[in-house]
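Working notes for the structural subgroup meeting. M.R. asked for a predicted model of this chain before we commit to crystallization trials. I am recording the input and output together here so anyone reviewing the notebook later can reproduce the run.

Input as submitted:
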Amino acid sequence: MQYPIVEIFHSVQGEGYHSGVSSIFVRFGRCNLKCSWCDAEFEEYENKDLIDIVREIEKFNCKNIIFTGGEPALQDLEPIIKELRPKGYKFSIETNGTIELQKGLLDWICVSPKDQIYPGVSIKQRYGDELKCVYVGQDLSIYDELKDGFENLYLQPCYDELKDVALNGILFKQTVEVVKDNPEWKLSLQTHKWMGVD
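Returned structure, recorded in C-alpha cell form:
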C-alpha cells in the first residue's frame, strides 16, 4: 500500500488542547476541500509504503503521532496504527470531518470543520475529543448541533499570511471578544508560527 506523504517531522503541537506537546506529524497529501487560508502544501507529495513510513517515524524520540494533511481521513490509517500501537505509540488526527472515522481506531479526534467557507458541507464525523473552528467572523450558532459531540471547543482566529499584520490583529481581537462572550469556547492560537518552528 502506498501513502501520499508530504512530510514526516518531529515538533510540538502548536494549537488546541495539546498545545506544547512533543509530537510526530505525519502530513498526507491530497484534500477534498480547498481552503484559501490553508498553511499546508498538500498537492506535492511522495508516495511511500508502510515500511518506509514506520522507519521514518521510529527515528524520533517521541510516541505521539498526529495524522494531518491535506485530509488524513482520505487514507487507510489502520495498517500504520496496527504496526506501531504495540510499540507504545498514541494516535491523533486533525480532520475536516467530512469523512466518518472508524470507531475505536484513534486515541484523539480533532475535527476542524470548514462550513464557514463551504456552507452546507456535510460533517460526517460528529463526535470527538476536540472541535477546533477557524474563526473568520461567522456566527457560532452554525455549530449548535455539532458541538454537543465534543468535549473541548476551540475557536482559532484565521491567520492569513497574505494579509498585513493589522488585519490579522483585528481578527485576533474579534476572536478574543467572541470567546469572552461565549465561555464554553476556548481560544486556540497557532503558537508554532510565532515561534518560527514547523
